[in-house]
Prior knowledge:
Helix content is 26%, strand content 25%. The protein is built from twelve helices and 20 strands. The chain has helices at 7-10, 16-27, 44-59, 73-83, 85-88, 105-110, 144-159, 213-221, 230-236, 257-267, 373-380, 410-421; strands spanning 126-130, 138-142, 172-178, 186-190, 196-202, 225-228, 247-250, 271-277, 281-287, 292-295, 300-305, 318-324, 332-345, 350-356, 362-364, 370-372, 388-392, 398-402, 426-430, 440-442. Strand 15 (362-364) and strand 16 form a beta hairpin. Helix 3 (44-59) packs parallel to helix 7 (144-159). Mean pLDDT is 91; it is low at 131-136. GO terms for molecular function: ligase activity.
Amino acid sequence: MNIEPTDADRFPTLTDHGRRMLEFMREHPAAPIYRNQSGNRLTATEVDDIRQFEKTIRQASVGWPRDGLPAWLPEFMARTFQTVPHYRGLGSPPVNFIDLPTVSRADYAGDIAAFVPDHVELTRMINFRTTGTTGHPLLIASHPAVAGRYLAFHKRAMDRFGIELTHGRGQVGVMLLGFQRRCFTYVSVTPTMDESGLAKINLYPDDWKHPDDRARYLDAMAPEVIAGDPISFAELLKLPMTHRPRVMMSVSMTLLPALREQLESRFACPVLDIYSLNEVGPVGVFDARAGGHVLLQPHLYVEILDEQDKPVPPGDRGEITVTGGFNFCLPLLRYRTGDFASLSFGSDAPVLVGLSGRSPVRYRLPNGSWINNIDVTHALQSLPIPHFNFHQYGNGEVMLRLNASAMTLADEARRALLPLFGTAGVHVGVLQSEDKTIQYTSDLHGAME
């Protein structure tokens, strides 16, 4: 029999101050319809551990020898082979790390339990389902302490830009935004920030008593951090919100420079582009001075691989493949992320250059030559487009689909693509789904090579 958890279950360390914060976020006259309930589920010991973890992460160096492996990797691989059923079934670890077979989202989707270590306490595990963009819905194995660790990496990203969070008791620290027909929404508190408020809200009008309440609520909550994706941020730009957060974080999908500039101008704060995956957590933060996304996790080793699981030459593009991580419920060994970039070594940490989500797609030009999908991104980067799909048909013509709110940019977007694809072959239409979609697709043979 499933018993509905209480606030005592969701918030084991909740004080009267935290209880008042939850009531403030739930009961405000302009509050949205919160459709779900969630909580940090952290014990007092875990809160103390996470505070120490944060200090360690923010001070640690990130990287490894250019021609070698991280010092921690051999022990990590040996322990994973001993405790994780999938790897135990493979026998002994290979002598050479690059001989270890890679795994992908499809492997996790097939049997996630086989990748969870034996010693993980099942009664404390949390699981959440991701829809993804690759055709493999995935159940992620996690833990309250793992979820609590995310903030350490977000703070490390902010440290890079001189941003120090200050909100605590009696203040709303973080507001997570969505803009979907169906969205998981809830209120919580962050015990490591003295029970500052945290809320996940959906800006879709159906989740509010009145559409105007969206701006009223955001102004009343006055969050120090607003996090979301390009779709929710594009909707936020339409609202007459007067509050100015300390920082905004984009945590999924490609954030085009023009949209980032619009956000920074409107809200007068830095907008951080965080490369993050549910399976891995926050991986890197974009820093133009470094030339790409600077890696954030001290115990995450990144390889750039070709289709045969072999490392590509330095500076070449390939699939981002990761080992390590901070989720002790899902230790990663050569996990192919489905995202692509090249890798350079910055002055203080490795950098993912030219990051492109999901499989790279080639597009054929009228003269028969091919270009990479990143060239399409570059052509569109001056336009504040929050979300799009770019498709090439078998006859070579291309279709750019924009979400409805961006259709005012249709003519500009088409003109931006004309130098690549010619006047007769470029079309612009409406993207039917406002939820996640695969950004680059093609019907042409050879497009995925």
